[in-house]
Amino acid sequence: MHLTRRITILLLAAASVMWMLVLPLNLSAADAATGAPEIDYARFAYVYHIESGTEMFVKNGDTKCYPAASVKLMTGLIAAEHLYTQQSRKVIVTAEELQGVRGNNIGLKVGEELTVGDLLAALITGNANDAAQVLAYEIAGGIEPFVKMMNARAAELGMNSTVYTNVTGLHDAAMVTTVRDTAKVALACYRNDTFLELSGEVRYVLAPTNINRSERRITNKNLFICDTIDDRYRNRYMLGLNAGSTPQAGHCVTAICDNGYYTYLCIVMGASSDADHIYSYVECSKLLDWAFEGYEYKTVLNRSEVIGEIPVTLSSKTDFVSALPERSVEMYLPTDIDVSSDMSRVVSFSVGSLSAPVPEGLEVGELRLFYRGELVDTVKLVTKYPVDRSELEYRKGQLKTLIKQPVFKISAAVLALLGVMYVLLVAFIRSRRARRRKSRDIIKR
User: Fold this and answer.
1) The domain defined by 42-294 carries CATH number 3.40.710.10
2) What pLDDT score was predicted for residue 217?
3) Is residue 22 very low, low, confident or very high in pLDDT (cuts 50, 70, 90)?
4) Rounded to 5 degrees, what angle do the CA atoms 398, 402, 407 make?
5) 176-224: pLDDT as tens digits
6) Rounded to whole angstroms, how far apart are CA atoms 199 and 240?
7) What is the pLDDT of residue 420?
8) DSSP secondary structure letter of residue 32
9) Comparing C-alpha atoms, which of 41, 104, 40 is closest to residue 273?
10) Nearest residue to 162 (alpha-carbon basis) of 146, 182, 148
11) pLDDT per residue over 86-136, tens digit each?
């Protein structure tokens, strides 16, 4: 009896050890756009959609040119950034500040006293060169140090092809820019409230000063804003910014236009003129009309669109989960575009199947969007809803997984062999006992 019990205990212990070895620790899975107008009367042009950050049109965008009055975008920007809180402060004009003033000016006099706000308006609204020089001295102590500030700010804005040599835009062969660089400073001016507001004023009335006893009306030189000089180009949607010309640079205009729905920056430089037209305004108007009429936002990928289905195991309620985009995608595109033919998609899943539980929003792949062959966006694909795990299916899955493992088959064979050995051993013991009893019976007789 004792021998049988010992053998049974040893066999059970061996079976337990084999079972522990095969039982898994964790089985849970847990350049110019199509249809754009011809720009024949200007060497450089640029259109930028501000809301989407899209370059809509570029002509000779990185070719160097003379900046003309667009220099005063940078002059005015720095002045507005440094002095917007000091507009009531009094300034007395000096002879040094007015030295060499030429071109457009408001006739400032030595000893004349006026406010910083007056000077900012004269510079930004009236494009006044004398105001530009006075402000340069007020901020930096001189023209040369102020020009250094201008070039440093240009570098900050990424204007790598721009060199400033003066604060007014009067021609200097060493002073160059590009239309793309000009766009960078123009956008900075657009985002500066002081500059944008002053550049959009039709006129500014300068009150009498200690030297000039009468009011001065400072008229905006941008014909998109003011129609006093020429009423052919007035555009009520224009917010600002700057216009001017030199013989070497041609006519230049930098315009911010907002029709209540979309906002554009349009720049035309190196434009010609004749008895009938100033073509910087003509070409800019053509480009803006084309952009406003020919483009709109289109949904090219919808957040609710099912992109595919991922098989799910260990759930009693469903055998798949839907995959959809993590977000919708809108693009600013031509109104006549056929999204189905001009847009294409490449879908790749990172998993072939999932085991419940599956959380909502689990990343399962990505979708790449192409517009006319160019990659424009990459969007994650996520599970649409959560999938709970069925404990019954989970246990079944555990068992199936276990049965398929080679070590389980070996263990089963070992257990079977041990069972056979046990039966044979018990039979042997019983047979031996039977023979002993028989022998005792014979001896007793």
Assistant:
1) yes
2) 94
3) very low
4) 160
5) 999 999 999 999 999 999 999 999 999 999 999 999 889 999 999 999 9
6) 5
7) 78
8) P
9) 41
10) 182
11) 999 999 999 999 999 999 999 999 999 999 999 999 999 999 999 999 999
Angle at 115 between CA 111 and CA 118, to 5 degrees: 105
* Structure token digits, residue 402: 């276990």
Two domains, one topology: 42-294 and 302-391: no
Query: Global pTM?
Result: 0.74
H helix runs in 366-405, sequence order? 391-404
388, 360 in Cβ contact below 8 A?
A: no
- Amino acid identity of residue 85, one-letter, is T
Q: What angle do CA 166, 169, 175 make, to 5 degrees?
A: 65
Residue spans per domain, the chain: 42-294, 302-391
Distance CA 194, CA 81 (A): 8
Domain 302-391: state its class: mainly beta
Amino acid in the structure at residue 423? V
Q: Would you say 393 and 314 are in contact if contact means Cβ atoms under 8 Å apart?
A: yes
Q: What angle do CA 79, 80, 81 make, to 5 degrees?
A: 90
